[in-house]
Amino acid sequence: MQVRVPLRDRPYTVHVGAGVLAQVGEIACRAVTAPATKAFIVADSGVPHAVVAACEKSLADRSLLPVTTSVTPTERNKTWGTLQSLLSQFAQARLDRSDLVIALGGGIVGDVAGFAAAVYRRGIPVVQCPTTLLAMVDASVGGKTGINLDLPGAGLMKNMVGSFWQPVAVIADIEVLRSLPAREFRAGLAECIKHGLISAHADEPGLLDWTAASLDRFAALEPSALSELVHRNVSFKARIVQGDEREEAPDQEGGRALLNLGHTFGHAIETLPNLSPDQDPSHAPLLHGEAVALGLVAATACSASLGLCPTTLLDEVRAILTRAGLPTRVAGLPPDDALITIMGHDKKARGGSMRLVLPLGGGRARVVSDPPRDAIAAGIAAMRG
Ligand code: GLY
Prior knowledge:
Blueprint: E1 2-5, E2 12-17, H1 24-31, E3 38-44, H2 49-61, E4 65-71, H3 80-92, E5 100-105, H4 107-119, E6 126-130, H5 133-139, E7 144-151, E8 155-164, E9 169-173, H6 182-197, H7 207-213, H8 215-219, H9 223-243, H10 263-270, H11 288-305, H12 311-323, H13 336-344, E10 355-361, E11 364-369, H14 373-383
Parallel strand pairs: 2-9, 3-4, 3-5, 5-6, 6-9
Antiparallel strand pairs: 1-2, 7-8, 10-11
Helix pairs in contact: 1-2, 3-4, 5-6, 5-9, 6-7, 6-11, 10-11, 10-13, 11-12, 11-14
């Protein structure tokens, strides 16, 4: 299966299927205009060695000399130190502007490797090879790359430094999902449910119902269900990105900013070190998708408190998240004021205003600037455990 991301200046193809990673050499060679001689693989330390080795072989078979480094995928590692290290390693490997970066891993590795590719020698091609469900359905498509900023006093500010740097190709091998820990797999479903809640904005009105009806097939890792899940979500995202590549649409239109549904609440709790999805402290901190799941609950409760959606939508959102094995409440949240301050730092703020994406029901959402404090507090209350 292939999905075209038809951007005017940098169109590319997302390849979806079982075993497609074995074609990375061929796909990469076809995707670039100038012939490359080296391919620098930035591999997530969680990716099985056999997957990295298959990738190296495919590249070598196409006369692309593979050089591999490993990155541990934590939000604390998605910072300057890792970026600096990658750039130094690119230079030591003597990558030139026609050589390739292969980002092989989850969203953290895709973001930092993509950003390193974006700034090394003012930009070299990157092939995104997502290995988590979350990276396949969201992070690897659309060109957002970047790192977190660790600001004294403000903590880790998510994705504060980065650039739009579109990949030359994306390879989503659903076979790799078999070795993904179940918790990581469930976290990816949060982004799919988010897409379902805004699906009418890209002519996919049935996406949420189909996702809900197929959860058992996903949990059983049925290949045809997984391929369809990734294909439908990538097609949806490609249409949103095509319409507003750099998230510049005015608030009334929504555009790409709608993909941030649940993220302003989610980002505020994601970097808090003590939060766990199931009260077990050894499971802290939350994964990005778990924070997004809680953020979807908060955004829906906030929307309901403003009368923008029926209160039954909150029940529906909790029900589908619960069936997907995702948290809808979390214990140990700081006081409202502290969370609202963190939310105000979110990079989606414009002109000093906090901007929240709130669901309306029927697959639609809208951007609301500076919602009243009571409505934000109603959102936070809905996710308190
Ligand atoms: N993950 C949100 C976006 O790509 O815009």
